[in-house]
Amino acid sequence: MSTMLVMLMGGGDSLAAIPFNPLFSGSCGVDKDLTPASLRVLLPGLVLGVLALAWLARVRDRLPARFALMALGVLFFELFTAPMWNNAHLGRWAYLYRDVSWVLTLGWTVLFLVVVELVDRLLPRWRALPRFLLTLALITAVTVPLETVLVASGIRSYAPEVHEAALGGFVNGVPLAIVYYVPVFAALVLGFYRYWSLVLDDALLIPVRRIRWGRGLVLTTVAVLLFELMVEPMVQNRGFPAWGYLYRDLNLVMTGVWVLVIALTALAVNRFFLLKPMAFRMVMAVLVATAIALPIEYGLYAAGMRVYGPSAVANFSGFTIPLLEAPIEIAFAIPCYMALVLATIRYWEIVLDNRF
Predict the structure, then answer these.
(1) CA separation for the pair 285, 268 (Å, rounded)
(2) CB of 95 within 8 A of CB of 32?
(3) Element (H, E) at 251
(4) What is the DSSP letter of 80?
(5) Quick one: pLDDT band at residue 169, thresholds 50, 70, 90?
(6) N or C end of the chain: which has fewer CB within 10 A?
(7) What Cα–Cα distance (Å) separates residue 232 from each residue in 7, 39, 166, 198, 329?
(8) Which residues make beta-bridge pairs with 175?
(9) Tens digits of residue pLDDT in 95-150
């Protein structure tokens, strides 16, 4: 989990040299002016998006609430992975935070909702896992050519760290590793969406009063490892046991720490909030996990065991925690990540318990 914090943070010895920028500054190293090339992409996208929403409104109940859930999941992910890619030429009105664009957020949201709805309607008798895997495959198949179009139009580009670390290199400006990045991104967002859809629908679920530790630890380890591998280019883990390094700076010790944080969170929620509604339990889980993880991450940062890459440093806002002089982005990144990963883990636990 810790590696994802780099997405919002600066770090290392270079922090002192970074000039202060207001939190919502328009200065983020990309040209935000709309261009003819980007307009030729945005206009057809707008038409297709409106048509897709019209269809969804006819076939899906509570669409505004479902749209908001999916958009929130996408936005959480975009916020803490922002330094991995640059979004330019969308128009100055199209940005929420630095180069995070609400236009792309809505585009992802519509795409995800359409694919989810098509798979659910066409294959209603399939179990949850094969439907989920098919959804990931379809989203990836659609995203690769779309990403090529975005790159060709000058809207999308990638951080130098991604260029350096991307296995297999680039084709038409798009890293071959996108076939890994997109499924991980989609898996977290869809897990978040599926969990909160159960809350929205007030689904009848089998009550489970005990934690199945073996299953939960496997799910958590897989979720943490997949995400840490994705964002590994943006951070260096220093001073950890040499035997723990799996790939570049991906370290098993850090993975174990964050798995333990999530396990302690599950224990606390099961002990104190077991009989509370699903929504309340998840909110408390995010708060508890953040309370445990925050001092750990600050300690690692202060000890110099987490050193962030130049692209992450460039996204540093300039605000720091009083006394600690640590980036305030830590306090925002952790709950964003926890909201996605905890909901995803819990969704799959529900699927297994209820044999969906």
Answers:
(1) 8
(2) yes
(3) strand 250-251
(4) H
(5) confident
(6) C
(7) 10, 33, 10, 32, 18
(8) 170
(9) 988 889 999 999 999 999 999 999 999 999 999 999 999 999 999 999 999 999 99
> Rounded to whole angstroms, how far apart are CA atoms 338 and 296?
14
Could you give the CA distance from residue 82 to residue 86 in angstroms, rounded to a whole number? 7
Residue type, position 111, single letter: L
- On whether the CB atoms of residues 198 and 279 are closer than 8 A, the answer is no
- H-assigned helices in the chain: 36-59, 63-80, 102-122, 128-152, 160-165, 178-200, 213-231, 252-272, 278-302, 310-314, 329-354
Domain range summary for the chain, segments of one domain joined by +: 2-354
Considering Cα of 216, then 274, then 191, then 224, what sign does the dihedral take?
negative
Q: In this predicted model, what pLDDT tens digit does every residue of 238-256 receive, in sequence order?
A: 888 888 888 877 889 989 9
**CA neighbours within 13 Å on the CB side: how many for 206?**
10
**DSSP three-state, residue 315:** coil
Q: Which of 22, 42, 267 is nearest to 153 (CA)?
A: 42
Residue 1: is its pLDDT beyond 60? Answer: no
CA-CA-CA-CA dihedral for 182, 188, 190, 196, to nearest 10 = -160
> What's the predicted TM-score (pTM) here?
0.88
Cβ-contact 115, 88 below 8 angstroms:
no
pLDDT at position 132: 96
Specify the 3-state DSSP secondary structure of 312: helix
User: What is 108-167 written as a DSSP string?
Assistant: HHHHHHHHHHHHHHH-TTS-HHHHHHHHHHHHHHHHHHHHHHHHHTTSEEE-HHHHHH-T
Model confidence at 16: pLDDT above 60: no
Longest dimension (CA), the chain: 58
Query: Are 77 and 188 a contacting pair, CB within 8 Å?
Result: yes
